[in-house]
Every structure is written in C-alpha cells, then in structure tokens.
Amino acid sequence: MTVRVGLTGGIASGKSTVSAILAELGAVVVDADLIAREVVARGTPGLAAVVEEFGSGLLTPEGDLDRPAMGALVFGDPDARKRLEAIVHPLVHRRSAEVEEAAAPGALVVHDIPLLAEVGRAGQFDAVVVVDVPTEVQVERMVRDRGWSREEAESRIAAQATREQRLAVATHVVDNSGSMEDLRRRVEEVHAELAARA
C-alpha cells in the first residue's frame, strides 16, 4: 500500500534538504512550494486569477509573478495572504493529487508542505515528519544564508505556526541542529520506519 507522508518544518529548518534525502532514498516527493510556483507561472489560469485579485503591479516586466513583491504584500497583511491562498491552494491540491496518483503502488509518497500545521491538513496523512530546529537557529540561518535582517527573519517566523504547533502534529521528528551526517542518519532511520509500513 502507498504510505502518504506529510513533511513540514519552519522556514530555514532544513526541510528542503530532508526532502532531497528522502527522494534519494526512493520516496516520491510532492513539493508544494515547487507546485505553487508552477500553478502561477506565466500564461497559467492561476497567474491570471492572482492578477485579477491583486492587480498587474505584481508582475515583472517579462510578465512573471514578482515573487518578492507578492511576498512583501502578503506577509504583512493576513487578509491579503488569505486571498492569495484561496486562489493558489486549490490549484496546488489538484496538481499534488495528480503527482500522487502517478506514483507506483506501494510507494512512499512524501508531501513537502511548508504550512502543513497552519492549514490543518496533518490528519490527511499516514505519518507527519517535522524537521525541527530551535527558533534562534532559524534566525541565524536566514541572516547568514539569505542576507535578511534579524527583523525580517523574526517576522517571517512569526507568520508561521509555532514550533510547538508543528511538533504537536508530528509522528516523526527530525532534529536538524547537528551535522549533515547526523541529519542524514536520522532521515534514513525515519525513511526505514515509514517504508516498513508500505
């Protein structure tokens, strides 16, 4: 049987690295962020709906969605974020279901969903893997790796579920505050446990 897994973690927790390791180990990864970009790519009905809702000022000169401008708008305005999510989330769900249906029988299908705890979808999966790091580590990584100010980092973290809310929905926790070797070992353990259920 197919085992459906939700994978989540706060910004700069290392969730993308965990997702990549799971894919290397043979899991079928359904990446909600990647799909969210696809459904609002130039020429899609999704982008047309975003422009209709928010105006053409959110387009680059080439006609693509200006992601930094959109991010700046929605992260400071919960109402705008809800309006954007109402457009994008149904499109992402539909495309994610198509990817899952194409997986081989008995596959481990990992849905990489940054906002899993926020959207209340944990119950839709056989297991939920949470990539966890202390908040201070998230801030340090965003400042160091992304060049953000401490205030930008803290505001982005504040817009997401709390660490406690994420851990509350976890069936498996991957601590990513150690070395890359530690992380890989833990992901391999979790993968083995999940694959045994298939």
From TrEMBL:
User: For this UniProt entry, what's an example GO CC term?
Assistant: cytoplasm
Its EC number(s): 2.7.1.24
**Localized where?**
Cytoplasm
Catalytic reaction list: 3'-dephospho-CoA + ATP = ADP + CoA + H(+)
| Biological process according to GO | coenzyme A biosynthetic process
Gene Ontology molecular functions:
ATP binding; dephospho-CoA kinase activity
Its domain of life reads: Bacteria
Give the pathway: Cofactor biosynthesis; coenzyme A biosynthesis; CoA from (R)-pantothenate: step 5/5
Residues at which ATP binds = 12-17
Q: Which UniProt keywords apply?
A: ATP-binding, Coenzyme A biosynthesis, Cytoplasm, Kinase, Nucleotide-binding, Transferase
Does the record bear Transit peptide in its keywords?
no
* Annotated SUPFAM superfamilies: P-loop containing nucleoside triphosphate hydrolases
Q: What role is this protein assigned?
A: Catalyzes the phosphorylation of the 3'-hydroxyl group of dephosphocoenzyme A to form coenzyme A.
Protein family per UniProt:
Belongs to the CoaE family.
NCBIfam families from the xrefs?
dephospho-CoA kinase, PRK03333.1
Full protein name: Dephospho-CoA kinase
Q: Which organism is it from?
A: Nocardioides cavernae
Q: List the lineage, top down.
A: Bacteria, Bacillati, Actinomycetota, Actinomycetes, Propionibacteriales
Gene, per the UniProt record: coaE
